[in-house]
């Protein structure tokens, strides 16, 4: 059982002091600190100079280069991981063993095996700490409103959907040593860039049943792909396409869902407001009905703050957060299936990838031409 008292602020440790911690996590934590709900008590980074500068700049009392030591010394309630995905498994498990909740940046882990190992580190009792993933696009007011309309059946059955993350990354971006490598980054744009839009699509559309994928390495000299596409069948019969790219000068993030009674669309780049959503009614829908659909209420942009506020509320209430457990795993399973389909040429169904499947432990699955040079699986298949 956690040490946290429900009426006290969550004592929080930030692990990794790079750009995402500075631009997104710390501002969100400080906003909630002003509301008396969080308190940043520690910063951890392998770079001693960086972590001391970070702690000094933001008035954080404890700075460390050793996560285990910080967990023992500070005993935080919440650990926020802003580190590369290769270390998420061990850091998440360490925090859970120390009795802390975890909020982990995407990608959650480099494989389903790693994700399941993190889940196994949870004690699993009611009110016990758990690990959750940063999937902030689920938590804006726009997604919340559309999710409700879809769940209530107001728009009719979803029929056809399109999910698009077409961004641009140049050679300088991939000059950072850990980018574009399976072991360090976990995957290409399907995993590291399009994962947020994919997660929102799955959150709105419900369970998927089958995926057929394609991937290519068209421009960048990397281990992973730089573009992927997928055809998706959902459990209710709806069909969708998913496109992920880092080759697209005209950058856009977009989801469109065509339902029986309306088309719902959101177009943005890194985060949306209510104004970025559009609902187009089908012919014959009364205007007063369409007007109700278009009333999104108060505007809460999708952001780390929106999700953190929801996460803290769930922790305070003893609830499971939606991006923890199976709620986070389904997105990673979908992306794993996309890679397996792309590299094998076969359709992959939900639940197909289990222990013993090469794609369960590594997203490249040891596929020739995709596995890192010299990897045991590539050599075995050669």
UniProtKB/TrEMBL annotation:
Residues annotated as domain GFO/IDH/MocA-like oxidoreductase: 144-264
Ranges of residues in domain Gfo/Idh/MocA-like oxidoreductase N-terminal:
10-123
**Which Pfam families does the record match to this protein?**
GFO_IDH_MocA, GFO_IDH_MocA_C3
InterPro entries tied to this protein:
Gfo/Idh/MocA-like_OxRdtase_N (IPR000683), Gfo/Idh/MocA_Oxidoreductase (IPR052515), GFO_IDH_MocA-like_dom (IPR055170), NAD(P)-bd_dom_sf (IPR036291)
* Region (Disordered) location: 363-382
According to UniProt, the name of this protein is Gfo/Idh/MocA family oxidoreductase
**The organism of origin for this protein:** Streptomyces tremellae
Upper taxonomic lineage:
Bacteria, Bacillati, Actinomycetota, Actinomycetes, Kitasatosporales
């Amino acid at each position: 059982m956690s040490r946290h008292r429900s009426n006290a602020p969550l004592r929080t440790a930030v692990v990794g002091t790079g750009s995402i911690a500075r631009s997104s996590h710390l501002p969100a934590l400080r906003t909630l600190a002003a509301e008396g709900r969080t308190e940043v008590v520690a910063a951890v980074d392998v770079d001693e100079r960086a972590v001391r500068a970070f702690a000094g700049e933001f008035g954080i009392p404890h700075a460390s280069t050793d996560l285990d030591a910080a967990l023992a010394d500070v005993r935080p309630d919440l650990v926020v991981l802003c580190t590369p995905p290769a270390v998420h498994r061990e850091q998440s498990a360490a925090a859970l063993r120390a009795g802390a909740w975890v909020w982990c940046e995407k990608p959650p882990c480099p494989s389903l095996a790693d994700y399941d190992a993190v889940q196994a580190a949870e004690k699993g009792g009611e009110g016990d700490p758990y690990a959750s993933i940063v999937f902030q696009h689920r938590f804006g007011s726009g997604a919340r409103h559309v999710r409700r309309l879809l769940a209530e059946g107001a728009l009719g059955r979803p029929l056809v959907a399109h999910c698009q993350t077409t961004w641009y990354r140049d050679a300088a971006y991939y000059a950072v040593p850990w980018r574009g490598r399976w072991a360090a980054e976990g995957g290409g744009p399907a995993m590291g860039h399009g994962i947020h839009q994919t997660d929102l699509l799955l959150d709105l559309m419900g369970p998927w049943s089958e995926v057929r994928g394609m991937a290519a390495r068209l421009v960048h000299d990397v281990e992973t792909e730089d573009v992927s596409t997928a055809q998706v069948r959902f459990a209710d019969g709806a069909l969708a396409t998913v496109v992920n790219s880092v080759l697209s000068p005209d950058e856009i993030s977009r989801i469109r869902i065509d339902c029986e009674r309306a088309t719902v669309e959101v177009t943005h780049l890194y985060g949306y407001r209510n104004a970025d959503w559009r609902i187009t009614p089908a012919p014959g829908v009364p205007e007063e009905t369409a007007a109700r659909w278009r009333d999104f209420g108060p505007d809460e942009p999708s952001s780390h703050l929106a999700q953190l506020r929801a996460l803290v509320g769930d922790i305070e209430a003893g609830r499971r957060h939606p991006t923890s457990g199976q709620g986070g795993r389904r997105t990673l399973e979908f992306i794993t299936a996309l890679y397996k389909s792309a590299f094998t040429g076969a359709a992959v169904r939900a639940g197909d990838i289990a222990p013993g499947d090469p794609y369960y432990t590594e997203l490249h699955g040891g596929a020739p031409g995709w596995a890192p040079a010299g990897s045991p699986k590539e050599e075995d298949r050669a």
